[in-house]
Amino acid sequence: MGEPRTHECLIHSAVQGSDSTRTFDTIQGTVTYDELNDLIAEPYRRTLDAVLDGEFDNETLSVDLLRELHRRFVGPVMPGIAGVWRSEQVAVGCHQPPHPRAVDREMRAAMDDFVARIPYLNDDPEHQVEALAQAECSFLNVHPFRDFNGRVVRLFCWFVAVRHFRLPVRHTWVDAGTPEDIAYRTALREFDEHRNPLPMKDFWIANRF
Length: 209
Known about the structure:
The chain is mostly helical and 209 residues long. 55% of the residues lie in helices and 4% in strands. It has eight helices and two strands, in the order αββααααααα.
């Protein structure tokens, strides 16, 4: 059940170049993106299974939980960056995420905003989806980790949707190069440029149920 090769490398690429042309230092040596994707599939599946089994149900929704999810599936392959905020400045297409020194502050503010909204959603699925869309865009706008931001943020949002809101979400990925992929990237760009989460809300409704 590991997440397929997706759009993450196309949306969130560091200044060194796109992930498809980068190499990555892992416990098994230097690998390509495709090789890394294969290495990460099994620990990602185990982390997803842990979510499905309710292992995190009693955990507080926080940046610490987000970092733990990242640590769980990245740690077996790239332990040096697992669960650790990025320490370098990056560019994500035309978007310039916050300076590394601001990552913790920005992530805590975004998480606090999301958690504070939950009591006021009144178990309304439409309001819940809008809150999830806002959170997904806000977290990815910060680009808190060096790698696997998309994967961990989508996993966190899926966890909240399924285990807390009890929404019938099927999955939280799209295949690279598909119309859904283009719609997802467009929604992220709309938030980055205009702080508008509604295209991402529309994406959730159209593709994740």
